[in-house]
Amino acid sequence: MSKLVIVGTVAFDAIETPFGKTDKILGGAATYIGLSASNFDVDSAVVSVVGGDFPKEYLDLLSNKNVNIDGIEIVEDGKTFFWSGKYHNDMNSRDTLVTELNVLEHFNPVVPDVYKEADVVMLGNLHPMVQQGVLDQMNKKPKLAILDTMNFWMDIALDDLHAVIKNVDVITINDEEARQLTGEYSLVVAARKIHEMGPKYVVIKKGEHGALLFNDGHMFYAPALPLEEVFDPTGAGDTFAGGFAGYLAKTEDYSFENMKNAVIYGSTLASFCVEKFGTERMQSLSKGDIEHRLKDFKKLTQFNIELS
């Protein structure tokens, strides 16, 4: 069975959208990635840190989804990373209300020995030096290293970000971040410039407008599935990344053609994530749910046309 290492935050979130608000609930990039990847037959492990205030039931949730938690450090006298945000009516923009780094401020990831030869490494959104620290611990170069990042690191740690980008095979960012990283408005040009920075594959997420995959002059577009209701977009990008990484780890096929399928799986899983607050929908997801929605995706994108 292929091994997948996931590094990122395991955290508390408090979310407000036009549909309601929550108190502190389970969140964090690695949580969403792990829950999403758990839908594939892979041996995955989360590398993260939490405080003594983090409920055991949340750790059990990951364990019960066959996500290894040996790499989650528990700082008993510390507090877990906390983020609070409020979404605007369009659900595409949000205001960050509170960010408390807490134990994350001094986080030094430790990859469990049994996962140091993992085939796939998914570097969730964290400081680039932390992401590089995970790659440095691997006993061999992973067959596929995937990096997610955000504009915050472009603002405060651009040199470090460029350094780790050189060492990964795939980068996943949104359209705004791709433009900031390259200074280019055209996403096609931006993808080419990012490709020149090191990654062979560039995935640009466009939220409700789908995702683009670029590789060496080739391009693929996957729409987002139109949904009747979107309750909470938090974690959708991480859920996409988990589906993308989980599918590739399972199939062990890292070709452009198979990455198209990985993008579809990522988009499919993200479409579930937004249906309820936090991780609630991902906790109850079944393989039957996923298969049914994949069929909806196929109907949405498949057509016959005669070309002369």
Question: Nutshell version of this structure?
Answer:
The protein has helices spanning 29-37, 56-64, 128-137, 151-156, 158-165, 175-182, 187-197, 236-251, 256-273, 280-283, 287-301, and strands spanning 3-7, 11-17, 20-21, 25-27, 43-51, 67-75, 82-87, 94-100, 120-123, 144-148, 170-174, 201-205, 211-215, 218-222. With 308 residues, the chain is α/β, with parallel strands linked by helices.
Structure description:
- The protein is of the alpha/beta class and 308 residues long.
- It has a single domain (3-301), classed as Ribokinase (UDP-N-acetylmuramoyl-L-alanine:D-glutamate ligase, 3-Layer(aba) Sandwich).
- Helix content is 37%, strand content 25%.
- It is built from eleven helices and 14 strands.
- The strands form two sheets. A nine-stranded mixed β-sheet has the order 6-5-1-9-10-11-12-13-14, with helices on both faces. Strands 2, 3, 4, 7 and 8 form a five-stranded mixed β-sheet that branches.
- Helix 6 crosses helix 7 (187-197) and helix 8 packs antiparallel against helix 9 (256-273).
- The longest helix has 18 residues, at 256-273.
- The N and C termini lie far apart (46 Å).
- The mean pLDDT is 95.
